[in-house]
Amino acid sequence: MSLTGLLFQLPPLESLKLSTPFLHGSTNLTLLSKPSSSLTQPISSPPSFLPPIRAMKLLQGRVVCATNDKTVAVEVVRLAPHPKYKRRVRKKKKYQAHDPENKFKVGDIVQLEKSRPISKTKTFVAVPAQNRNSRKKETEEAPEELGIPLESVQQA
User: Fold this and answer.
1) Model confidence, pTM
2) CA 141 vs CA 131, 145, 155: distances in Å
3) Residue 74: count of CB within 10 angstroms of its CB
4) For residues 129 and 145, what is the distance between their CA atoms, to the nearest angstrom?
5) Which structural domains are found in the chain, ordered by start?
6) What is the chain written as a DSSP string?
7) Helix extents (H) in the chain
């Protein structure tokens, strides 16, 4: 047999099928992902009945600037551990908050509630905070409500 006779006896190239599934991108991309081992647990999503976790809903701070219309600058002070010395250090940050009635002055204590973005820098609404002194007065008035007279009232 001659060489040309052998070439004519071979099947055409189109009818040959290669066994690899990677030819011409016919493989699904999920097969190309990393193989999973039995030691690694698949990351599961939290149950659907739990509410989503939203951080930083309320902040409390002091008004440091009230010159802008319907906007106050509030300085929030928090305690955070120092990265090297692990001592708690005061950290200050200023937030712009919406004050629709311009009722807050410099030095007022306000609470910041998270809201939809009002402008580029304002995502909080300023709400009056309960004074710490008013809480103490409530505890002082509690003995009178219980019917226990105070020592100062007994002597007078």
Assistant:
1) 0.51
2) 16, 7, 18
3) 26
4) 26
5) 58-131 (2.40.50.140)
6) --HHHHHHHSPPGGG---S-TTGGG-S-GGGGSPPPPSSSPPPPPPPTTSPPP----EEEEEEEE--STTEEEEEEEEEEE-TTT--EEEEEEEEEEE-TT----TT-EEEEEE-S--SSSEEEEEEEPPPHHHHHHHHHHHHHHHTPPPHHHHH-
7) 3-9, 132-146, 151-155
Please list, in sequence order, all residues whose beta carbon lies within 8 angstroms of the beta carbon of residue 100, skipping any fewer than 6 positions away: 70
Instruction: Note the pLDDT tens digit of each residue in 103-132.
Output: 999 999 999 999 889 999 999 999 999 876
The Cα–Cα gap between 122 and 58 comes to 14
Match 């509630």 to its residue by tokens: 113
At 148, list the tokens.
Answer: 């226990």
Cα separation, 20 vs 10, in Å, equals 21
Distance from chain centroid for Cα 144: 44
How far is the C-alpha of 62 from the C-alpha of 58, rounded, in Å?
14
Per residue in 1-40, pLDDT (tens digit) is: 565 555 556 666 555 555 555 555 555 655 556 666 555 5
